[in-house]
């Protein structure tokens, strides 16, 4: 199933909304608590790392919109969703499942929204690879 590409003017608000959502998600990861605990708890270190990668991907996607930034967005959103789900449904290794907080619900909502935006709207910005022109087609294109 193919979808018709949307005009660049209609994609721009979705692009900036994705940048804002990724920035908010990254800041939620960075606002995890005292920095002193990062040296003791590896999960806090992973959260800070996700936040930094997310800020970098948001800055790159806001300026260029390249495929690398979309991969970074997908990695941050997927890891956030997976991490929140595992921590609250199964529990982190060596621990019991954690209760849900407003921060965790916001992470799940933002990560899900980013993955949906990447699949539905932002992927249509990619142009398909041009087909190779045959001999007659090449002359016709050169005459234009």
Helix content: 55-70%
Distance between the termini: 33 Å
What is the total tally of β strands? 0
The biggest beta sheet, please?
Answer: none
Rg from Cα: 20 Å
Taken in chain order, the helices and strands follow as HHHHH
Mean pLDDT: 79
* Helix/strand structural class: mainly alpha
Which shape, going by the Cα principal axes? elongated
Keywords: Membrane, Transmembrane, Transmembrane helix
Transmembrane segments: 16-36, 42-59, 71-93, 105-122
3D architecture notes:
The protein is mainly α and 144 residues long. The protein is elongated and about 70 Å long. The two termini are 33 Å apart. The model has no long low-confidence stretch (mean pLDDT 79). The longest helix is centred in the middle third of the chain and has 24 residues. The chain has one domain. Keywords: Membrane, Transmembrane, Transmembrane helix.
Give a short summary of the structure.
With 144 residues, the chain is mainly alpha-helical. 67% of the residues lie in helices and 0% in strands. α1 (8-30) runs antiparallel to α2, α2 packs antiparallel against α3 and α3 (67-90) packs antiparallel against α4 (102-120).
Pick out its properties.
144 residues; mainly alpha
Q: What is this structure's SSE topology?
A:
Layout: H1 8-30, H2 42-63, H3 67-90, H4 102-120, H5 135-143
Helix pairs in contact: 1-2, 1-4, 2-3, 3-4
């Amino acid at each position: 199933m193919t979808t018709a590409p949307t005009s660049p003017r209609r994609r721009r608000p979705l692009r900036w909304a994705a940048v804002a959502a990724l920035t908010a998600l990254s800041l939620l990861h960075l606002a995890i608590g005292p920095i002193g605990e990062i040296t003791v708890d590896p999960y806090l270190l992973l959260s800070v790392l996700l936040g930094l990668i997310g800020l970098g991907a948001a800055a790159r996607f806001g300026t260029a919109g390249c495929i690398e930034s979309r991969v970074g967005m997908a990695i941050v959103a997927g890891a956030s969703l997976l991490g929140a789900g595992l921590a609250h449904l199964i529990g982190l290794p060596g621990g019991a499942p954690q209760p849900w907080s407003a921060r965790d619900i916001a992470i799940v909502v933002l990560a899900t929204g980013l993955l949906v935006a990447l699949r539905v709207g932002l992927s249509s910005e990619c142009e398909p690879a041009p087909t190779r022109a045959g001999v007659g087609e090449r002359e016709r294109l050169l005459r234009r």
